[in-house]
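ugh finaly. both done.
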Amino acid sequence: MKKAFKYLSCLACGILSVAAVSCSEEDYTLPAPNLTTAELVEGVAFEVEHDATNPNIIYVKSLLPANYQVAWVTPQGRRTGAETTLKIPFDGTYEVQMGVDTRGGYVWSEPYTFTIDEFCAEFVDHYMWKRVSGGVGQSKTWQLDLALLEDGSSKTTKWTGPKWFWNTNYTWDHLHAANENETTYNNFVDADPWDKANAIDPSDVPADNEAGDNANWYWTADYAGNSWMCDLKNYGYMTLDLIGGANVTITDADGNVTGKGSYMLDVDAHTITFSGVYPLNTTTDAPSTRVFKLLYLSDDAMMILPNGTTAENYSLNYVTKDFFENYVPDAPKEPELPDGWRDDISQTVITSVKWTLSDKNPIDWCKPDGSRMNGWNDLSEYPDWLGTPDPATYAGFSMTLDCNDNTALFSYPDGSSVSCGYTLDDKGIYTFDAAIPSCTIVGWANFATDAENALRIMSIEKNSQGSVIGLWLGALAADKPEYTAYHFVPNAGNSSTTPTPITYAATLSFNDTSTWNQINGETIKVMEGQEYTATVEATWTNGDPLLWLDVAGIQIDHPNADITLLDIKVDGESIAFDDTAISRGFDDDKEPKALRRYICDAWGLASCFPSLDIFKMKAGAEVTFKVTYND
């Protein structure tokens, strides 16, 4: 080590000399001085040592001063930092390179060769090795999730295509929970729904562009709707084994060997590194690296993402050959409509229902089962790639359906209209007997029927009173099992009819802590924007008095609803109060749950009242109030 010490001392002197002539008051740091490949020698600039008790563990360590930024190219992928540890299960000859960040960029050493003499079964006794290869002495054959069938059509399975597109900073830790193991799946594919708060690393993924505006994005692109991603063909197979090493064999679709190499799994960093061969790919967009991050791995499916490059933002999606050939897709699920749905969608008015697009979330996309794919509930939630809908754009558009004579009237913002007939089958599919013009909703997204001039009911929305307040209708895509869905709300019936307003039941109640004889006043129907007075006739006899006002079910339709107290009278006399001091809460015992103002709470009297005595009424009480939806 004397040679190393002398060499490092010279480097340090060089740094000090440069600092003496080039630093100024504004220049506090310097990049590492330039080095040459010849200077980066094992035993001088770095060292590679075998663990004393397990020679399959290799310690790689920089011997340069701490201000040097160091990287390594190892059999288990590229790493950074002054030290790294390798766990290599197989005997063989391996290489490691040291890289140092200098003024002129990274300078790399010549490959340093070391050997592993024995096989360490402990390092491959892990479920990830078994999932990749089947285990020691076994092999698995993988293929991209795409095939060209004899009739010229495409086939996909689990991934619906050979590629998905990603923010390239995603890692296993952003997509998997810590409790996932050999038998428990808890990740972005198998958990439904997946909550990233459960991830090993729940933080936002760093943005992979300079603008920093695309963190956490990935696109589950299906081949049926995005065939531009690669040619439709059979790309062959990739066999990964653990037979005398970790070997890779690439064959074409006819079984001809086109490449051989090896691979290495890092079960801690969740990466897979190929040597001597690239993994099976679509050939038209082959990766430039042999180091990949594992994003998903099960017994029959694998997804890998090129590591360290933002240019290659696509994953390669594999399934085993056996899984692909025996795959039978589940029968498509269909929307499940509730009993009595026909009556539901025609009950708003007597003769017809006029439907207009929602001014909060007019459009979304739905799966075949009718569930919404994005779940936007407010204009602010729409993404940049679609744009924010402007209700003024489609304000003049409406669809009036008359269930008495099965006629439809479509009206458009330019004043035009189209009348036609329609049928409604038992699955909830409207089919119109005339072409229905489209209507712009936002950007490139329009209202339109499907190729069969039809719309299907995806779901029906009701409020707490059982009234229909929304209807999602979907147009089936021509190229994939997916619906463009339009959110309609009942607006009015025919020209002589107006919709029934939605109201909520309000009740003022009295009780005491002695007799526990609850007395309820007359229930009144209330809605936003008006003042109401609720009354209760009651006489206090004993115990502590209780007085409260409930409005049932309002928070189901309006989660931010509130009750404002305007006047409180006991035995006809108004009493002073502070509305903000009186508790706001819920009655969990009622169905639907009631929004409650507990005016006289014997266990927590509001600070604005001097004592419980003012509520010891002889004739009763009345409360004037108003409700606000605060949507």
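ok and the 2nd:
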Amino acid sequence: MTEYIVLGIYLIGMIGIGVYWSKKTKDSEDYLLGGRAMGPVLTALTLQSTSMSGYMFMGGPAQSYKEGYFTLWYAVGDGGGAIFNVGILGKRMRRLSYILGCLSPIEYIEARYPGKVTRAIAAAIAVCFVYGYVLAQFLSAGKTMHALLHIPLPAAIIVGAGVIVFYTFAGGYLAVAWTDFIQGIVMVLAMVVIFVLSWGQVGGLTGLNEALTAIDPTYTGMWGYQNMYEGQWGVVAGAVGIYLIGYMGLPHVVIRHMAMEHPNVAKNTVVIATVYNQLFIFVPYIIGLMGIIMLPNIDDPEMVVLTLAYELLPRVLAAIVLVAIMSAIMSTADAQLMLMGTMLGRDIYQRYINKDATDAQLMNVSKICVLVVGVVSVLVALIQPPGVFQIVVFSFSTLGSAFLPSYVAAVWWKRANTTGCVASMIVGTIVSIVWEVAGLATTLGIHTFFAGVVISAVVFIIGSLIGKPPAQEIQDAMDRAACKTKIPAGFATADFKELAPETSGVISFLKESDYMEERGFMPV
């Protein structure tokens, strides 16, 4: 009964957030990007909680339980993921998307790489593989509630997914960001408490290593349990790189840069997100290692975290851990569902069906798309398609391979053009699909993500060198995104004594505030 009460309070709270922000959302920019008003703390937590998903509570510990210390390669990459993601894209992407007037990451791709087919290809890839994410998160939410609360699976899927769909539909990006903020705090506190208690049980690092060595020395080796990946440096590179740089290719993650209040928010966001990562990223994998010792006979390694919670914590606190698992799932699902609404409304409806759609029409269509995608996902999840959890990893690799080179080059390489972008998206997607279907990761010892991104990047460079350079206005916009465009000399040295008081005040404000810098002009 305790679990039902705690989870019920939590779900009602999420619904309340959706209702509250539905009243604050006035236009499409509010609904799709939160009015570009996200500060550093909110940006950092929504960025990281969106990236984590239920994998960090279930998949990560289970993988560590099976493979030993090898899985820390994933943590090593993920620990620096925020630095790469926000440091490379954050400030410049925020500024360039504003200059180009973009509200979605797919619209941004078309604006930076103009072409008749650019948005069509980008939207098709994103809609297809982001939908895989949404479906998997809905099913995992239902399975979690079914396994832990013994609710019939169909009812669990409908309840879990229904709450996510409601607050995303009602409150848009603002509701998603604030629920992610709360969920991010719940997630890290629950995980750290379990880690500290388990750490004492196994005798710290020394006790952990001695116990693992006694069971099987390969648990503590760099190649995984029974040296399963021995000599496969391509797998190691993929394990490190997939979370180190992979987030820069995920549309539902990079849209967080576009929603920042100001480009300079990126500075503090890097610090906050990196600190959050160090508290959270390594812990799940280490808990999985401790589970080998503390739970040697567990039937399902994905239940390591929750099982330890019920063994080490009072029941009410263990119920909060259940809420933390649901938070991890929901924080990813709502972001992807919101992105689906954005892409279907902004990138398909407004771009190809009704180019003259009003702001109110765009917002309403995006809301309807969120609702429709949510309902369809619930219906498909009820069928329980096989291998849905594998779809998550596959979708991650494919999205990263398709989009990462284009997003990075968009703000860092003036020569990057439409030819390179389109070729990279197509080839990156094909390589990921072929690599996965043919099982080449196992055959060649090279991770799907690593192969996809490298080949996609090479194709991008070749295509950009062959194709025509971007138009001058695009290059000028890149200079402004890099804040290399100087404020006109006359404006910078204006003699205030010769101007009317009102004009003098306006110029003083523009020079002393962030207004000009946000629009890509160098500070005076």
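summary for the 2nd one i guess: The CA atoms of residues 80 and 244 lie 6 Å apart.
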